[in-house]
Amino acid sequence: MDYHIFRKPKKLKNKTVHRWYYYFYDPITGKKIQKACSGCKNQAEAYAYVSALSPIFAEQRVTISTIAKYMFIPESDHVRRLDKLGKSLDIKTLREKRHKLDIFVEQFGDLEIQELTVPMVINFLMDDPHGGSWKNNFLTVVSNVYDEASFFGINNLVKPNFPKFTRQTVKKDVFSTEELNTLFNEALWQKLNQKMYEKQPQYDDGYIALYLMFLCAISFGLRLGEAIGIKAKQFLFDYGMFVVDGFYRYEEHERTNFNKKGSAEDQKIRVVPIPDNIAPILRNYILETNAQPDDFVFLRYGQPIRKHLAEKWFGRAVELAGIDTEGRKLTPHSLRYTYITRMRRDVAGETVRKIAGHNSMAMTDYYTRAAIPEMVEAVKPAAEAANRLFE
């Protein structure tokens, strides 16, 4: 029986009377709920009362949508449980997981978790254009839903073993010498700026910050986040070197003090040569903009350049340059690939490894000046090669 009747005493006006009640367990939360059998004077009437109640609680379906409703939502019970279990997730990861969860719910949310099968999920993913890594992360989120089901009264649920997809990492293409010289002709960026704002000149903030930022990306082999996060103090013009010591986190709108493969404890800082031909250009720009040591150098509307805006400008610059993109993946990260590929023509692999970002050196109090010469000496063989990047 889904409803259980019982009698308990209750004091009314200095006397004790016995009233009939019933209780049941909510199948979603597992919580015991107790209610009165209204107007029941004896056991027979109590049984008659509960027999007339709707069986809705017993028959309520717990769908995937119900289970997933508050998953990966900041401050939710689900996230608090993860924190207590030592599985804390940052806001970026929560957003990514929630996005995949929303896709999963849109497709399968009306089903009960017991109705879901491995072929259903795998066939759905096989038709999805995302890569293997994304699909495997999606399957991890699906597994998280199975873990959450027990908190909705669904016990003894067997979590299926989903097969993994092969990761298909598509490397970025590199630019040829002719393409580089065309793409980094400043006149092209002037023309692009005119095209971008010919209908809305009130939003024209110029092209120079974007142009120079990408020029730094190709000249120093930077990731896009590293280029966006450039600060004036990173340029060591007296040494002819540039220090890479952090990157801009787009979602958090903040800059780290460590590189991509590093941490606050192990920063993975590296130095790279500044090509002779662009050193005066960058020095003059920093002086003209009056950028202080800890200021961001390249700004749009007074703020660090947004990722999607940088990608938009880069894509249009490639198009305006007439560069053939058919069958090629040309993105801002292609500049880093191009830099490393070209440096390998003249520089030993170990030196390239250091300037590409695998050198670990903790530096504090602006930069540890005593450590700079040692780092510069390690990458000195790359200086001449850096001057031939566009050759």
Short description:
The chain has 391 residues and is an alpha+beta fold. It contains 17 helices and ten strands.
Rg, rounded, reads 31 Å
Number of helices, counting only DSSP H or I runs of 4 residues or more: 17
Major sheet details: 3 strands, antiparallel
Q: What is the CA–CA distance across the termini?
A: 84 Å
Principal-axis shape: elongated
Structural class: alpha+beta
Show the helix and strand layout.
Blueprint: E1 4-12, E2 15-25, E3 32-36, H1 43-51, H2 56-59, H3 64-68, H4 77-84, H5 91-108, H6 118-126, H7 132-149, H8 177-183, H9 186-197, H10 208-220, H11 224-228, E4 235-236, E5 241-244, E6 248-249, E7 254-255, E8 270-273, H12 279-288, E9 299-300, E10 303-304, H13 307-320, H14 333-343, H15 349-358, H16 372-379, H17 382-386
Antiparallel strand pairs: 1-2, 2-3, 4-5, 5-8, 6-7, 9-10
Describe this structure in words.
The chain is of the alpha+beta class. The protein is 42% helix and 11% strand. Strands 1-2-3 form a three-stranded antiparallel sheet, covered by helices on one side. Strands 4-5-8 form a three-stranded antiparallel sheet. Strand 6 (248-249) and strand 7 form a beta hairpin. Helix 5 crosses helix 7 and helix 10 (208-220) runs parallel beside helix 14 (333-343). Mean pLDDT is 84; it is low at 358-371.
